[in-house]
Amino acid sequence: MQKIVPIKCPKCNNKDSFYRYGKDRDGYQKYLCRKCNHQFAPDRPTSKKVPKYPRCPVCGKATFLHHDYEYYSNYRCCDKKCNYSMFVPKPNNILPASMSKLVGKNDFKRMRYPVHIIITALSMFYLGKNSFRNIALILRVAHNVKVSHTTISNWCKKFAPFFNNLSLELIPMLDFNSDEWHADETVIKINGQKYYIWFIIDSETRFVLGFHLSPYRDSSQAFALLNSVKDLGTVNAIVSDRYSAYKVPVKSVLGSSVKHIRVESFKDDVSNNLIESFHHQFKAWYKTKQGFNSFESANNLISMFIFFYNFVRPHSSLNGLTPAQVAGLNLTEREKKKYLLVA
C-alpha cells in the first residue's frame, strides 16, 4: 500500500491545491501551489545556511563587521537602537604563551645521581635563596655527595618539561572557578636585555594559572597569556592595572560577561596587591640569580619556580597549605610519591 505524505505550501500553508511541476536538477519532485504560484520540492533535504557573522547576544539580530584586526574582530548589531559591540578572538592568530615552549628532559632516566638527591637540590634552589655553589656545599657536607655546581645548574633547567607534564596531569583535578583573577607584568633581565614576564593568579587559591615571557609589552602578549588560561575555569572579573593592553584581550578572549576591573590606586576597594605580593616573592628569588643567560633557560627556570610555588611550597597565608591543596588537590601518600610531591 502506498504511503500518502501530506503536502503543504511553505509560503501560504495551502494543503489541497497543487500541480505537479516536473523535477528539479537533483531529481526531486516539484510542486506548484495553485493559490500563490510558489514552486517547492517537499522531499528535498533542507540545508541550513551558516551565518557569516555571529548573531547579537542581546537582541538576537544580525551583526556586521565593524573592524577586523590581527588577533580579533569587532562586530556591531545592525539594529541602531541596540548598537551592541562585541569582540571575537582569532585563536589561530594568537601566539602560544612561552610556558608551552619548554626544552629539556621528560624523565629521570640515565641520570648519574639518585632521584632524591636531584629533588633535594631542586627544592633548595626553588624554595630558598641558595646559589648553585651553596647547594653543592650543603650536599657534600650533609649527604656526603660530591656534585659540581654546574651539574646542579643543569638540573634546575633541564627538567622543566618533566615538571610541566606533572602539572598538566594535576590541573584537571583542581577547581579554579573564582570571583577574580589578577593579571600583571614585571621586568626581568636576560643577558642584559629587558624582558617582560606576564603572570595571572587566582585570588582564592593563590595559584599561578599561567605566565608568558616576552621582549614586548603590548596587547598581543596579553592575548597570549589570557588565551592560555581561558579553559581552566570560569571567572567573574579580571583585575589589572590601568595599562590599556588588557582592555581588548579581556573582552574578546574571556567574553563580555567577565568584568574588567582596572585598579587606579591603592585606595580603591579592589586592589592588585595579591599579584604585587607574588612579584615581591618572585623578585626575591630572581635577584639571587643575577639575571638569566638566555631566553630558553629563563623560560625553563621560571616554569619550575611556578611548579614549586603551586604544588610544593606551603603558604602561611593559606594556613600552611599549598595553592594546589586549596584548589582541591587531595592525593594519597602513594600518589604524592608518584608526582614527587614528597621525598
TrEMBL record:
InterPro entries: DDE_dom, InsA_N_dom_Znf, Integrase_cat-core, IS_Transposase, RNaseH-like_sf, RNaseH_sf, Transpos_IS6. Transmembrane segments: none annotated. The keyword DNA-binding applies. GO terms for molecular function: DNA binding. Keywords: DNA recombination, DNA-binding, Transposition. GO terms for biological process: DNA integration; DNA transposition. PROSITE patterns: INTEGRASE. The keyword ATP-binding does not apply. Residues 168-331 form the Integrase catalytic domain. It holds the Pfam family Zn_ribbon_InsA. Involved in the transposition of the insertion sequence. This is Transposase.
